[in-house]
# Entry
Amino acid sequence: MRADLGKHVSDVSQKYLLAGETQDVALLFVPSEQIHAELAERFDDVVARAHRARVLIVSPSLLMLAVQVVQGLTRDAAMREQAHLLQAEVGRLLDDVRRVGERVEKLKAHFGQVVGDLDQIAISTDKISRRGLRLEQMELGEGPQALPNPLRREAAE
# Structure
């Protein structure tokens, strides 16, 4: 058993651990939790040699755990690869928000100008109304307070 397991560890290490091409660790699957427990308990020298050869002996439950860890690492690596794209998109989004803010400020300035213009028109309208009322209240009769009538002067001449 010790020799067979040692041969499997060596074969996995030589065939599946290729520098620059594969991962640094290989998994050697043992199809039973009980067999895995016996290996760990009675063949600790073979398990240690497997670790030195970067071969992990895994049972069904440990294999599932290893697969989940590898999936998480793969997902993290993909996120890191895409991080620069995400940062670029965030930068463009912030530029858009800045432009919207500038446009809001311009619109506020335009509304402020419109309000100012309306106030000036209201002042002018008020002055025109007061002058009209004064003109309406004046007597146009024949007296020293009366306004000169240009038509009368022309008729007299």
